[in-house]
């Protein structure tokens, strides 16, 4: 009998491999976020803040293709799919070291965004397949540790690369680590029913802890049907509002600390680590709090919602980041915000595996991730367009408020298993699309945006609107039209 058969703990080794993959995934992402704040990079690849927002915006636009990635993983299998996508991370990261212009950098970030859309999608599929319901929260927290750990590692790696060689070496190191992880993944990962090292007792534990409503049905995921369910939007919309916090810390924190707070490279290498160490603790605190609430008789879904709400209340620390004079107090408040964000984020992400069957989890996670990254894209482009004009403070205030709205939506939309799930409807995407398109129209037509228009509430086309914002406007319109299609389909299905 082998080690894993004796210990009956193979599932924890599997989630540790996933956590390591998440570390690599976010290290690859964040390496640019640290490099861009260095003088050597700015000399080699000059770009304005608005151009940098384009670079990060392209990444977010392509990572929004997570529904495609999730569908691919559901169709070709997790082991093969992750090996292919993680190899792509590695090769694209190597290519970052050869970039000479911000346009080339944007093209690489777009391709990397698509490849990296597998991170949370694959993690959720592993959690749903390998863990009974009572352990899913902790397992989700463990693999999410990788996000903040990877980002925290980027600062020291970039600093050492610049001291020993140059900024390009940081990308070579990150790419090499990604290739090593692919080898580890292929060596050890199998589904529970196919894994040669799993004991009969551990397999029975996993199977006995799977609720009836999450068992795979064998059917292909029906995308329009999923988009018409309130439980999907009950997960996706809170993530849409919450994820801009993580993107702000990932993409803009080094620039904020260096330009506004005056940190040099050595100080930056330490300061950017602290919020993500706090985030790591939040990854474990969220599942711990859910477990404690369950032990006190609170149902699983309600325990997750209360945990999310507590995290949202702690996120109000972000309101005060711009108001403190001490740069160290600002870092402390940002660290509290990072802790709070991961407390609520890992809780919300894990709910997909609590509410949907296994054969739908990858698709649901991908579509929810796309919605979250839409929020990130909008927020990132707004920072790039407005930060020179209004500074960072209004954005920190917004981050302190958005999660409170997200908590209200989580309580309002999500229905627990066994409750009436309501009928499929397209009204939520219709309303969301109308808010995006209508909100951007008013933003530019009212004179708030830093572009000339002919007057108050003039036509959208009369304003000098950046093409990226026009793209978001078009996406909102497309989302509203998709909602109409879902609503028509749902009504026809009910009438049949």
Order of helices and strands, N to C? HHHHHHHHHHHHHHHHHHHHH
**Helix-and-strand structural type:** mainly alpha
Low-confidence stretches: 455-460
- Alpha carbon gyration radius: 22 Å
Share of β-strand residues:
under 5%
Helix content: over 70%
Question: Main attributes?
Answer:
496 residues; mainly alpha; 21 helices; 77% helix; 0% strand; globular
At a glance:
The protein has 21 helices and no strands.
Topology, pairings included?
Elements: H1 3-7, H2 10-35, H3 39-44, H4 49-63, H5 66-76, H6 78-96, H7 102-115, H8 118-130, H9 133-164, H10 167-188, H11 200-208, H12 223-227, H13 230-259, H14 265-271, H15 273-295, H16 300-314, H17 327-355, H18 358-390, H19 393-413, H20 427-445, H21 467-495
Helix pairs in contact: 2-8, 2-9, 2-10, 2-13, 4-7, 4-18, 5-6, 5-18, 6-7, 6-8, 6-10, 8-9, 8-17, 8-18, 9-10, 9-14, 9-15, 9-17, 13-17, 13-18, 13-19, 15-16, 15-17, 16-17, 16-19, 20-21
Please describe what this structure looks like:
There is one protein chain. It is built from 21 helices and no strands. The chain has 496 residues and is an all-alpha fold. The chain has helices spanning 3-7, 10-35, 39-44, 49-63, 66-76, 78-96, 102-115, 118-130, 133-164, 167-188, 200-208, 223-227, 230-259, 265-271, 273-295, 300-314, 327-355, 358-390, 393-413, 427-445, 467-495.
């Amino acid at each position: 009998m082998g080690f894993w058969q004796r210990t009956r703990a193979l599932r924890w080794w599997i989630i540790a491999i996933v956590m390591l993959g998440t570390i690599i995934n976010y290290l690859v992402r964040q390496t640019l976020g640290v490099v861009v704040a260095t003088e050597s990079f700015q000399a080699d690849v000059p770009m304005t803040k608005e151009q940098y927002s384009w670079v990060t915006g392209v990444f977010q636009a392509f990572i929004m293709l997570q529904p495609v990635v999730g569908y691919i993983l559901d169709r070709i299998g997790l082991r093969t799919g992750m090996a292919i996508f993680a190899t792509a991370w590695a090769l694209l990261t190597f290519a970052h070291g050869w970039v000479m212009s911000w346009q080339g950098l944007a093209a690489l970030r777009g391709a990397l965004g698509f490849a990296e859309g597998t991170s949370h999608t694959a993690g959720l599929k592993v959690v749903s397949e390998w863990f009974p319901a009572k352990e899913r929260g902790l397992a989700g927290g463990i693999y999410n540790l990788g996000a903040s750990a990877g980002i925290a590692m980027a600062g020291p790696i970039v600093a050492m690369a610049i001291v020993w060689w140059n900024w390009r070496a940081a990308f070579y190191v990150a790419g090499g680590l990604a290739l090593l992880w692919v080898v580890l993944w292929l060596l050890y990962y199998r589904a529970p029913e196919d894994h040669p090292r799993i004991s009969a007792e551990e397999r029975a534990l996993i199977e006995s802890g799977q609720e009836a409503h999450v068992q795979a049905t064998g059917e292909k995921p029906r995308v329009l049907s999923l988009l018409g369910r309130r439980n999907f939007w009950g997960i996706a919309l809170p993530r849409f509002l919450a994820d801009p916090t993580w993107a702000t810390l990932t993409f803009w924190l080094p620039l904020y600390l260096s330009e506004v707070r005056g940190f040099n490279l050595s100080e930056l290498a330490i300061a950017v680590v602290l919020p993500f160490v706090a985030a790591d603790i939040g990854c474990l605190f969220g599942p711990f709090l859910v477990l404690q609430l369950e032990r006190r008789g609170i149902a699983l879904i309600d325990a997750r919602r209360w945990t999310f709400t507590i995290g949202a209340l702690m996120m109000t620390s972000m309101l005060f980041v711009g108001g403190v004079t001490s740069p160290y107090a600002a870092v402390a408040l940002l660290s509290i915000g990072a802790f709070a964000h991961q407390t609520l984020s890992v809780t919300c992400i894990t709910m997909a595996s609590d509410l949907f069957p296994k054969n739908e989890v990858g698709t649901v996670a991908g579509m929810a991730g796309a919605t979250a990254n839409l929020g990130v894209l909008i927020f990132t482009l707004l920072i790039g367009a407005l930060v020179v004009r209004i500074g960072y403070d209004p954005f920190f205030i917004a981050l302190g408020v958005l999660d409170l709205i997200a908590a209200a939506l989580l309580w309002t939309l999500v229905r627990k298993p066994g409750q009436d799930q309501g009928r499929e409807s397209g009204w939520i995407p219709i309303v969301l699309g109308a808010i995006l398109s209508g909100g951007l129209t008013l933003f530019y037509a009212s004179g708030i945006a830093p572009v000339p228009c002919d007057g108050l509430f003039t036509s959208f086309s009369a304003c000098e609107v950046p093409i990226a914002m026009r793209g978001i406007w078009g996406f909102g319109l497309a989302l509203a039209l998709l909602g109409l299609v879902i609503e028509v389909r749902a009504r026809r299905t009910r009438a049949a």
